[in-house]
Amino acid sequence: MTGKNVTLRLLDKADREILKLPRPVKGAIYDFQHKFKTNPDSAGLRLKQLQGHDKLHSARVNDEYRALLLRLADDDWLIVSVKHRKDVYAHLDRLTYSVNRVTGGIEYVDLQVVQEEVLAPAPPPSAAPAEPAAPEPLFAKWSEQQLTDLGVAPSLVPVVAALTTEDQLLGLVEYAPQLTGEVLLALYDGKAYDDVLEQVTAPVAVPDPVDPEDYRAAADRPATIVTTTDDALREALEGEDFGRWKVFLHPTQAKLVTRDYSGPARVGGGPGTGKTIVALHRVRHLVERLPAGRTKPVLLTTYNKNLAADLRSRLLALGGEALLSRVEISHVDQLALRTVREAEPGNRKRIVDEAQAVREWRSLLDELGEDGWDAEFLHDEWTQVILGQAVTSRTDYFRARRAGRGRTVSRAERAEIWQLAERFAQRLDRLGVQTWDQIAERAAQLEAGRARRIQDIERLREEAGGLDNVHVADGSGGWLRYRYRHIVVDEAQDLRPAHWKMLRAMTAPDRNDLFLVGDTHQRIYKNQVTLGSLGINIRGRASKLSLSYRTTRQILRSALNVLGEETYDDLDGSAETLAGYRSVLSGAVPNLHRLADWADEREAIAALIESWGEVPHEQIAIAVPTNDMAREVAYALRERGIMALEIGPDGPLGDSGVHIGTMFRFKGLEYQRMIIAGVTDGLVPRAGVRQRRATDPARYRTEMQRARSLLFVAATRARDSLDVFWHGEPSPFLKELIEVRPPAAA
């Protein structure tokens, strides 16, 4: 056999299996694939057909590990697994592979692993209780024929028949082919058989009859997810930046990407369910259906520049420069600032952040001798009510809605607040500064005015008999029109009301105009909005993703405990839940560490990272409550010779080292190993929040919910492991976790 044109592919389940292997073995696999493509018959590879299998072969990776390969054609091979040599030959009759007759894709299953990991009996109890009634199998009501007609892998039907718990089901989903998992979860969630057939199976079924012996054709069908190129193979084998999975689309997500919506639509779901991936593919879908012409007819936006940069790199990986050339990618504050400066080129005031604005409020109150008002309360009132509702007069403020603000204020107090707000705005103007809230509100006003002028033009055109002979210059040499044909928003829960008003005005109300993804359980700012009140009606066009492809079940359960019994909105006036949110991955339970003081925490963290050996430092992250704590942890690591990178507003400040930052900084990121430190009462939540419990109960609840969300976000950045540290009294949010799993000894 000549090796000149040998094709070697890697099955998707295999690369996830390889990620768990020691780093030297991953390197050996990368060397192996080069040698195999050069000459599969090389004596050192020891390629041989496995007994009892006509297509399955094994080849030597190194002294300890063997690759299992399907021979698709003479010079076309598919790696389906990499195992320790002692595990390859022990259960040859339990290795199954076939072409699924519904999807036409190749499916490989190690029934021995499934049996051990999914259906292994629990250890016997210490005392023999009364024998309980045998549990009802989860899928007893469906026949073998029905399950295989839906696309369940035939080799797994006996296993499916034996499932009795959700944990067993989720364990099977981790090892099962993609469609099998999707079908079983849909049935388990109560969907009718015909609905599963129509909504889950039909979209991935191939129209032509499937030849079960033609593995070469099966390898080229969409249902067989493989990696082929050298770069993609290296990325999959090393698994250091999750590159492939950052743009990989699962079947349930694909339906949301290609759906035709009659207006604005929203996709929700917990961390790791692929919301951002759906947003990226939605952008590509929209671009592909637009005619050539306008340079950038689609806007992709999110709430900060770090995430916008990540979206850009992922969109480039998905569609290349050709796709990027037709998409405007900008974080929403940058977009607002550009809009304002385009219309008002003389507006060059310095911009201050929220913390600086609150300090200016305190200075104003001190100068006026006012001690009856709280600076943070006044700032929130100014941003959320006065700016948020575009209130421009005292009379309008008396009539303004204050839903969700908690503390009621009398008419006399409103008069005082209005006077203070006017003085505050004058103070900022005198200092030559402005806030991001002011910029967002001004941009919203400008875009709303632009939209009204466009609508006036359209009315004139209709009155002129539909002739395209009415034009108005936009002041920049072009003709007035909406800025974008489609707008896609990532992390929608963290945008301000003014942002939404601006975005609504930037695209014409039409089919597929706005596509939003987000999860209000991950809201880390105070921007609670009701989209319907801002002209964005998503009723009937909201969907939810429920399967996490990043975080293990064990970490997910702990993270959900952090949220407690809090209720969250759905961006449209109703409640949002994570009911049905689950993970298809399994791993170790989170580790809890109680230390005597903050110095001991830092030392313990450094020792833990040293114990992890070959884990790439860029795949380790440490989240802490404050910037000062981030700097102190970074210093402690460097003292031990561990490279550390602090995460700033623009992302990690360097290329190599452990990532360290406040919990705010980790939104949208993910790591193999996550450490959350300083989870101490008084820090999480901060002490000031507790003090509001009696004086301002509504604000107390909002701040507590926000603190829970921050901890939830930090915990769900983890893929493989989560370690939580604290000193002194633990955060009250850890109460249930500590009761279930006591901390390790210091």
From TrEMBL:
Top EC class for this record: isomerase
Listed under catalytic activity are: ATP + H2O = ADP + phosphate + H(+); Couples ATP hydrolysis with the unwinding of duplex DNA by translocating in the 3'-5' direction
Q: Matching Gene3D superfamilies, A to Z? A: P-loop containing nucleotide triphosphate hydrolases (3.40.50.300), RelE-like (3.30.2310.20)
UvrD-like helicase ATP-binding domain location? 248-559
Record flagged with keyword Isomerase: yes
Residues that coordinate or bind ATP? 269-276
Enumerate the Pfam families for this protein.
UvrD-helicase, UvrD_C
Q: Which PANTHER family match?
A: DNA 3'-5' HELICASE, UVRD / RECB / PCRA DNA HELICASE FAMILY MEMBER
Q: Please identify the protein, giving its name as recorded.
A: DNA 3'-5' helicase
| Organism of derivation | Streptomyces edwardsiae
